[in-house]
């Protein structure tokens, strides 16, 4: 396996008439594994990657060839350590490094050398230099000071790039990418400064920025294709939409929040930029948004999207998450209560249901218990029922605790159906909590635990939410 055998796995990299070979060769010292791994993200907001492996021979040498249609950012690793490369169709790059410290020891040679040396030198000067970092010290600045600091950093980066271009033959595609990376790193730091400062500087109130502070937003080319491969651009685009949503008085707790972001994107973006950002919005909505609004966005997106990779990603993500999305029906079950009555989840339609799965020998469950009792007392007289399913193996232990402590709410023993319940609700741990709306659909699959700050307010704000959402969806 180690005698120069190429282990190349090309999973899904596009091959077409426009694609060209990229060849990486090199030598690794102090190798931590017997192969090199190159990972190219499907897109800047999803963890899935195309993986290419190449074996190391006895001398630590490797060779890998793949095909690319366009420039990409790729992560190269041997063991735990690695480095991000900029690769373009036609590159023929030689690498030498020590696997125990790739970033500090890597050397480049061949086509693609200049671009990757720039990335490394730029990282050393600006990303590893504390003088250029927002955290920890510069976050304490006021508006005027911070504006001067972040503008000066951008100017230094631009000068550094121009000096490098003057002495090294950087490709046109890379120059455009490098300029976009500087632009959107600067823009993202400026935009997120007030929020970040509020989180870090606890002793002070949020800074009120002057309208002039945000004028920079009008200068940006949000549809710049050179920026699309950059995670920084993608983070900025989402942060910008969050900023616009906040300005429009939309809240992250609103059931239609992702839908509002989706619509706002149409006003600011077009073409591939719009496809990219809307795909990310739907991707995140599939995991934490309301199924009704996700459906609406997905139908709209599938009509206009021109990127088949995005279509597959978000449709797959939708299918994987729709069962437990907000607005999806909570799986029904029939249980026998501690008093011997038979109850079904359907019996509680018309009321909020705070559903918990717990065990008598679970430390977190016992810690939550007194808070759960207080929560039930605070909600007496309101249309909510607390349904508690004991997942113990020992029914006697469960029954004793429920009766002796006179626990409030509906208590049922889940042993006889425990495996079915685990599958129905995909239970991985106890305690597990679910907040179910009056119409039997999920409001929250991970509500605050009873012992968490704000759990009472979260429930109090949930009454009638499903009905309001249904009305909004009809509009």
Structural write-up:
The chain is an alpha+beta fold and 475 residues long. It folds into 4 domains: 20-111, Carboxypeptidase-like, regulatory domain (Immunoglobulin-like); 112-230, no CATH class; 248-328, no CATH class; 334-474, Glutaredoxin, CATH 3.40.30.10. The chain has helices at residues 102-105, 113-127, 143-167, 172-200, 231-247, 257-268, 271-288, 291-304, 308-321, 363-378, 395-404, 418-424, 455-460, 465-474; strands at residues 20-29, 35-41, 49-55, 61-68, 72-78, 81-87, 92-98, 107-111, 334-336, 342-344, 352-358, 384-390, 410-413, 432-436, 442-444. The chain has a 5-stranded mixed β-sheet, covered by helices on one side. It has a 4-stranded mixed β-sheet with strand order 4-1-7-8. A 4-stranded antiparallel β-sheet has the order 3-2-5-6. Helix 5 (231-247) packs across helix 6 (257-268), helix 6 (257-268) runs antiparallel to helix 7 and helix 7 packs parallel to helix 9. The radius of gyration is 27 Å and the shape is globular. The relative contact order is 0.07. Residues 1-17 have low confidence and may be disordered. It comes from Adhaeribacter terreus.
Based on the model shown, name its key terms.
alpha+beta; 14 helices; five-stranded mixed sheet; disordered N terminus; 15 strands; four-stranded mixed sheet; 475 residues; 41% helix; Immunoglobulin-like
What's the CATH class of the largest domain, please? Alpha Beta
**What is the overall silhouette?**
globular
What portion of the residues fall into strands of 2 or more residues? 15-25%
The share of residues in helices is 40-55%
Specify the biggest β-sheet: 5 strands, mixed
Helix tally equals: 14
Rg, Å, rounded = 27 Å
